[in-house]
């Protein structure tokens, strides 16, 4: 470990890291913060992603394996005081590890190709927790990639990174695609594009999901706008058997993505 | 609307409502708070549940239908200042409607009978958002009831009520059951009791879900303890096809409950 403990919350290094909590600065620096042992572990598995790792003395003891791994990979590790960590971490109970990471997203043309069998697209999804959970679920369901349209939340948002539980580092993620362009690319790559929306005529049980499929998920409150529905091949709803009005976005996405995964594997 | 606007945050009525944000007082008064138009609407559909409705002048205009419905049912409606509403509401952007409701839960023996086909049981679930989302999903999947064991979060917690999106008022909910007793009742009622756990030998695709089934969901971080797994008929995991370590509790529950709903309907 080089250098002494960083204790000054106003030091330039803390400020340089802290500014990454704002999207404008993330986009400018092309870097973001990954917090906690799980995210840091997954980030370290990739080459040239972690730029610097901040750790408290306590976390250094508890997560010695991660610190060693970082040092082995030539990543500078900086011990920081609890006060500095509180400044960098965005959770109420910071776990003492924050990594500055380089952007990891992939161009649409690389993430979506004719080899893709299952893709999740987030259009107008605004809640970072939901978006991160969908990334995690898409990863679990074996999706090939996740596409965030230009009107969706930033996947590098701290809450989104946390909710993804490392999945942001697992599968190709596309950012800021205009919807029409993304849908066209999905179709050109041979995927059937299905909008998941409560207004769908067909239910999940009525459609054949055995072929390559891209699911489009919309806004938490108002779903998908007409102009996006019109671009897709079909609009499909998760059947509601009880009295609930609808499902939460992330749970609806889980039901759709796993229905696809199952149908493709049974095909 | 009787009386004038309530503006004093220290008034006994505001204090009597405010104390319901704490579990100990809820249990003492056998009442809880339901916030926002969706929860209030669903609560008003039941008889003798809403004891009193607080509304801001603004919400009164926007949700005139709900106010009328409350008055028609003989529910006292009290206009409150924004300051009083902020004191009662537990969200950052309160929507101007808070109802004091009587407890709505059901004894285990009424909620779980031989007529039940699908039951969700929450054992050691601690996050109120997750618990509420599971209630909402269970409702959507057509479950007959939801059982909260004694080591789980209080379903009357404000965050849980909100995340349930009204489902707390839709289906029978059992509270504070000792696990062994609940599992016994489920078995005696003819349900196969399946623990959803990443340690399961069988995956969701390997088990026959066409019969009456109860799903047991565990803690967000550490799943289900050995002694609970031992009580169940089988331990089943949601298959992970990608690199994700696990699924979020609420999304795993959604995949399991919908797999059951589908299998029962196709049987």
From TrEMBL, chains A, B:
Cited InterPro entries: Alpha/beta_knot_MTases, MRM3-like_sub_bind, Ribosomal_eL30-like_sf, rRNA_Methyltransferase, SpoU_MeTrfase, SpoU_subst-bd, tRNA_m1G_MTases_N
**Presence of keyword Transferase:** yes
Print the keywords alphabetically: Methyltransferase, Transferase
Q: Where are the transmembrane segments?
A: none
Domain RNA 2-O ribose methyltransferase substrate binding: from-to ranges: 33-107
Does Transferase appear among the keywords? yes
- One GO molecular-function entry: methyltransferase activity
Q: Which GO terms describe its biological process?
A: methylation
Which family does the entry's similarity section mention?
Belongs to the class IV-like SAM-binding methyltransferase superfamily. RNA methyltransferase TrmH family.
What is this protein called in UniProt?
Answer: TrmH family RNA methyltransferase
What species does this protein belong to? Nonomuraea mangrovi
């Amino acid at each position: 470990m080089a250098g002494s403990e960083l204790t000054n919350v106003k030091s330039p290094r803390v400020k340089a890291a802290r500014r990454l909590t704002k999207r404008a600065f993330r986009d400018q620096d092309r870097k973001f913060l990954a917090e906690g042992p799980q995210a840091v572990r997954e980030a370290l598995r990739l080459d040239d992603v972690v730029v610097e790792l901040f750790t408290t003395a306590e976390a250094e003891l508890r997560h010695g394996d991660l610190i060693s791994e970082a040092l082995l990979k030539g990543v500078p590790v900086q011990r920081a005081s609890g006060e500095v960590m509180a400044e960098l971490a965005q959770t109420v109970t910071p776990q003492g590890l924050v990594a500055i990471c380089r952007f990891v997203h992939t161009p649409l043309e690389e993430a979506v190709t004719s080899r893709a069998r299952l893709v999740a697209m987030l259009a107008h999804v605004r809640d970072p927790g939901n978006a991160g959970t969908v990334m995690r679920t898409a990863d679990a369901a074996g999706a090939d990639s996740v596409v965030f349209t230009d009107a969706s939340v930033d996947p590098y948002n701290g809450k989104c990174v946390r909710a993804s539980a490392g999945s942001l580092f697992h599968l190709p993620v596309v950012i800021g695609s205009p919807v029409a362009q993304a849908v066209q690319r999905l179709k050109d790559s041979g995927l059937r594009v299905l909008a998941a929306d409560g207004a769908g005529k067909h239910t999940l049980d009525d459609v054949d999901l055995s072929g390559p499929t891209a699911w489009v998920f919309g806004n938490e409150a108002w779903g998908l706008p007409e102009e996006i529905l019109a671009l897709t091949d079909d609009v499909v709803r998760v059947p509601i058997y009880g009295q609930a009005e609808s499902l939460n976005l992330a749970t609806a996405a889980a039901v759709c993505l796993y229905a696809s995964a199952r149908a493709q594997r049974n095909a």
